[in-house]
Amino acid sequence: MDLDGLLAHYFGSDDLEALDEAAIARGHEALSIDFGVERDPGRRFALWSLMHMLGEAPDPDAAFKGRADREAAWNLIRLTGRVERG
């Protein structure tokens, strides 16, 4: 999976800034649905990572059953500096 391909697949463009709110909402919805039904762990993590980068990912503890996947997701959150402070 490559980022440009995923963006083009879900949003119809790799330039999200050029899209209107409706196109972005449709892309987020399709991405969320695919994440929910994906069974391949690698593809599922890739979809979650994209969702995370777009600010739409579910909490890793709810998103992943396996400990290794949860830890990888939390590591990505820490690495990208998107840990919620509160």
TrEMBL record:
It comes from the Bacteria. This is Uncharacterized protein.
